[in-house]
């Protein structure tokens, strides 16, 4: 699947940050995030804002080596003042997008991943914010929507991340093998939003396809994306699992990052 344009990713960082801000407005910042139980809602927001600032620093300084997070100007509010937290989140996203737009998508910079470019980071920050916005929405019991093209790209990027961490020796992802088994992701509300993940003796591969598989995960695209990113349980009544549900569980247990 072709990536979206650099400008679209930059626009979505701002739009998704605004959606996150709307979600936490009036919410209990001390509430535990069910999908990230080590964090409160405030800590989740701080994580997102610091990720934005970290990437902004990498891009602005044209870093060719990792930038230690403690070297990134932070200025996070020390209190639970919602207005201060909101303003801090706005400033971080805006500064990072300004740096990304000025740099364009082709500039070579350090990254932890398979591609060292500003384009990589623009895309990564979109999906970082999309997934953590889902965490916040689940915590605050609010609505959550993602445009189809971004939900599909979130799935694509997650497949790339899992393949990458497996290639560099992640022990959990190393178990994602097993010739003759496959997973079909099938969005019921978006044309061509289907993936076939096929396991082999040496790993896994994927492609866009509508084919019979060992197990199929069906449902609206956003919900399929949320299950795939472990933000919605596969036994939710919002999706349907057909076939060997244990294989889907096998994937979800091992497809992890960080």
UniProtKB/TrEMBL annotation:
Q: Provide the Mycothiol-dependent maleylpyruvate isomerase metal-binding domain boundaries.
A: 11-137
**Cellular component per GO?**
plasma membrane
Q: Which GO molecular function annotations are given, in alphabetical order?
A: metal ion binding
Tell me the protein's name: TIGR03083 family protein
Domain (MDMPI C-terminal) spans: 149-249
For this protein, the record's Pfam families field holds: MDMPI_C, MDMPI_N
Where, by residue number, does the polypeptide cross the bilayer? none
Organism encoding this protein: Streptomyces atratus
């Amino acid at each position: 699947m072709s990536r979206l344009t650099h400008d679209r990713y930059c626009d979505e960082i701002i739009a998704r940050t605004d959606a996150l801000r709307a979600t936490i407005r009036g919410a209990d910042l001390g509430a535990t995030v069910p999908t990230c139980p080590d964090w409160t809602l405030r800590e989740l927001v701080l994580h997102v804002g610091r990720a934005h600032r970290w990437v902004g620093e990498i891009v602005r300084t044209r870093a060719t080596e990792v930038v230690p997070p403690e070297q990134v100007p932070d200025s996070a509010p020390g209190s639970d003042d919602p207005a201060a937290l909101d303003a801090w989140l706005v400033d971080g996203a805006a500064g990072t997008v300004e740096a990304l737009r000025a740099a364009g998508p082709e500039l070579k910079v350090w990254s932890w991943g398979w591609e060292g470019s500003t384009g990589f980071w623009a895309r990564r920050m979109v999906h970082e914010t999309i997934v953590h916005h889902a965490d916040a929405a689940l915590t605050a019991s609010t609505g959550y929507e993602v445009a189809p093209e971004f939900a599909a790209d979130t799935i694509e990027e997650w497949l790339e991340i899992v393949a990458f961490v497996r290639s560099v020796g992640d022990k959990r992802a190393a178990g994602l093998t097993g010739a003759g088994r496959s997973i079909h992701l099938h969005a019921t509300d978006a044309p061509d939003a289907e993936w076939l993940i096929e396991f082999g003796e040496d790993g896994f591969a994927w492609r866009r396809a509508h084919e019979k598989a060992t197990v199929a995960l069906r449902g609206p695209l956003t919900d399929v994306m949320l299950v795939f990113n472990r933000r919605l349980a596969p036994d939710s009544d919002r999706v349907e699992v057909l076939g060997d549900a244990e294989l889907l569980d096998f994937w979800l247990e091992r497809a992890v990052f960080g």
